[in-house]
Amino acid sequence: MAHEQQKLPNSYGATAAPPPTPSTQPNSLSSSDAADALSRLFHRLPPTLSLSLPPRLSLPLISFSFSESNPNLLADLLSSSSSQLGFFQLTNHPIPSQLARSAELESLHIFDLPRDQKQQSFPIRNWPLGFDDDDDDEVGESFCFDGSCSTGSTELSLSSLREFTRAMEKLGLEIVESLSCAVGFDNPFRERATPFCSLMWVSEGHAGNKPVLSGRFYPYVIALQFQIRCQKYSLLADSGWVSVSPLVDSVMVTVGDIAQVWSNGKLKKVRGRPVASSKEDDKSRNITMSLLLTLPTDSTISPAILPMVATGGDNDDDEGQNSGGDIDSKAEKKLFCSFSFEDYAWRVYHQRLLFKDPLNRYRIK
């Protein structure tokens, strides 16, 4: 992708002599001065060319127990973290830590299978489900399962991963309902008005502190990841790359592009799945299990704006007419046009549009 080049200011006047060549110029800069000059140069680069590591942010902490003891507090916390950042972590949730660890052990087993057995047991018959051995060495292998974690082999048992997927799916539906109430949009999943599907995306992490700038990107409403151990993640939020470190046994929640459209832009989003990173000398294997709550391919995505309310008049009829009733002039205006989920998912999955926001083409200007 081409980046815009930022011109450095001309520090020499029009009549000034050209700067001396390195061979004739005495080394008048100390090592400290040189480091300061290099630092200033890096800060003047465009954000996409910056060589610095992603800024580390404090991940908002929300106790899911507030849903029963103090639902108003839960709504306030969800609203602030999702509308300002697009991600948070949940504690006191119903997912057992032992279940997550059992699911990880099963995942490690399938990564250890011979490549031909992976392709045979997990064929890509119904995109994007199946085994994906990406050509990019920085991305590596991954498996995408449906909600039942079905396989093409009777010899492989993924019972723990299946149970873990269903538990995460149930929690995800509750979070979407809480978000819709907190931010103020009509939850299409409520009472199953809109069908949903869940994908369990299992991938093996890579060593290194830099974010992986490529990889499979599939649209989702929200994504959930259980934190089995201390682990740092890089997220590509609307504001750019950030680094977070969730608490052990918490569930990290990232808001996706579908939720941003549904909320009519009220929610911030994370592009793609969070990227796990580790130290260069860390030889331990790292499995990431991401539950994506998403839509069937034949769906249409559009803002889920709450209906307008007729106000005024003492004898309002069904149409809100001839009674002094007027439609609220402050009714919300749609910021996104409707579009096909299948077309959008196919494009971002294969083109991997991470630097440029793939939703830009659907924004109403």
UniProtKB/TrEMBL annotation:
Q: Could you confirm whether the keyword Transferase appears in this record?
A: no
According to the entry, every stretch annotated as the Isopenicillin N synthase-like Fe(2+) 2OG dioxygenase domain falls at 235-273
Q: Which UniProt keywords apply?
A: Iron, Metal-binding
Name the InterPro entries on file.
DIOX_N (IPR026992), IPNS-like_FE2OG_OXY (IPR044861), IPNS-like_sf (IPR027443)
Keyword Iron: yes or no? Answer: yes
Q: Region Disordered: list its residue ranges.
A: 1-32
Ranges for the Non-haem dioxygenase N-terminal domain?
A: 59-120
Q: Which GO terms describe its molecular function?
A: metal ion binding
User: What Gene3D superfamilies is this protein classified in?
Assistant: B-lactam Antibiotic, Isopenicillin N Synthase, Chain
Descriptive protein name:
Uncharacterized protein
